[in-house]
Write a structure and sequence with these properties.
Blueprint lengths: L18 E5 L3 E6 L5 H5 L4 E5 L3 H10 L13 E5 L2 H4 L1 H8 L2 E4 L2 H12 L21 H12 L4 H10 L7 E2 H4 L15 E3 L16 H26 L4 E4 L8 H15 L4 E4 L6 H7 L5 H15 L1
Helix pairs in contact: 2-4, 5-11, 6-9, 7-9, 9-10
Length: 310
């Protein structure tokens, strides 16, 4: 997002830093506004990410390079930060890079980022939210188990493995239990998953005899199905029909979104709608970025830039 190619301006203060980060358990998400002008500047990425495990190496590298300097701030090197890592890495940032992390509330910034992207919803419920539930199964679970089982080098590699895999190799389907037939009594098709990784019980195979692609696919389906079901149950509890999904686990990955959508559609009998945001992995960082700045100006620039450059 090239925030400098238009006429909007931002106050030169620490609270209006053009860089914000969301340091989660598995990934670090970064959102920034560049001050470069012209079409070439608009081609720059406004969002980036890397694994949280690499943050110590990154801090050490930049420390050796002489640290960072952020323009547009009267105070030296202040970055808005959210997520648990904003607290965990406060001292390393300050001691090694002389960077002060301006810590923002994680849930508050997540909602702010979502509301900013949902600009078509005319201020309905903006600033009001309630944390109603959660699960320990998510993106970090996918990456952690994937690393143990298939040893990928990155989150993207694990997603690519899952794209090429076949979950039926490891997953026990309803048809495997009912002789290839549907279970009409409870409305389950023969292709529905009865037990994730259930075939591993009777296959008498060692781990190395399974293809990494098939394991990754089964893992992705297991986590996505559970996220979809838990989300729907919470929506049902509060009488909601539309469910917005965010987080870097999704990554714009078509199969992940399809699996979540199918799960919500199945459990809601088609009554609930799933929606995914284009920058869903950066909601917390985006919410931190827009904290205490002129949101209408930033929103106008965001709209104009995407109209021009897509």
């Amino acid at each position: 997002m090239d925030c400098g190619s238009k006429t909007g301006s931002y106050p030169d203060s620490p609270s209006s830093s053009h860089l914000a980060i969301d340091i989660g358990g598995s990934l670090i998400k970064l959102v920034y506004c560049s001050r470069g002008g012209g079409e070439s500047a608009a081609d720059e990425n406004c969002c980036s990410s890397t694994q949280s495990a690499r943050i110590s190496n990154g801090i050490s590298f930049h420390s050796l390079q002489g640290g960072w300097h952020l323009e547009g701030s009267k105070e030296k090197n202040v970055i808005k930060a959210t997520g648990g890592g904003a607290y965990k890495f406060t001292d390393p940032f300050k001691e090694q890079l002389d960077i002060v992390l301006d810590k923002q509330d994680e849930m508050d910034r997540l909602v702010a980022g979502a509301n900013f992207l949902l600009k078509a919803v005319h201020h309905e419920g903006i600033g009001k939210f309630e944390c109603v539930s959660g699960t320990s199964v998510g993106g970090s679970t996918f990456l952690g188990l994937g690393k143990l089982l298939t040893q990928p080098k990155s989150f993207d590699e694990l997603l690519e493995l899952s794209r090429r895999g076949n979950n039926r190799v490891a997953d026990m389907l309803v048809g495997d239990i009912y002789g290839g037939n549907d279970c009409h009594q409870i409305g389950l098709a023969s292709t529905n998953i009865a037990s994730s990784f259930g075939k591993a019980i009777s296959d008498n195979k060692e781990l190395h005899e399974y293809q990494p692609e098939d394991i990754s696919r089964s893992l992705l389906r297991m986590i996505s199905n559970n996220i979809g079901q838990i989300s729907y149950l919470n929506a049902l509890r509060y009488g909601l029909k539309r469910i917005f999904f965010g987080g870097f686990f999704i990554r714009g990955h078509a199969y992940t979104m399809d699996t979540i959508s199918v799960a919500v559609h199945y459990w809601s009998k088609g009554e609930a709608e799933t929606l995914f945001l284009r920058h869903e992995g950066f909601l917390g960082a985006l919410g931190a970025l827009i904290y205490n700045i002129d949101k209408s100006s930033l929103l106008q620039e965001w709209t104009e830039i995407h109209e021009l450059f897509g």
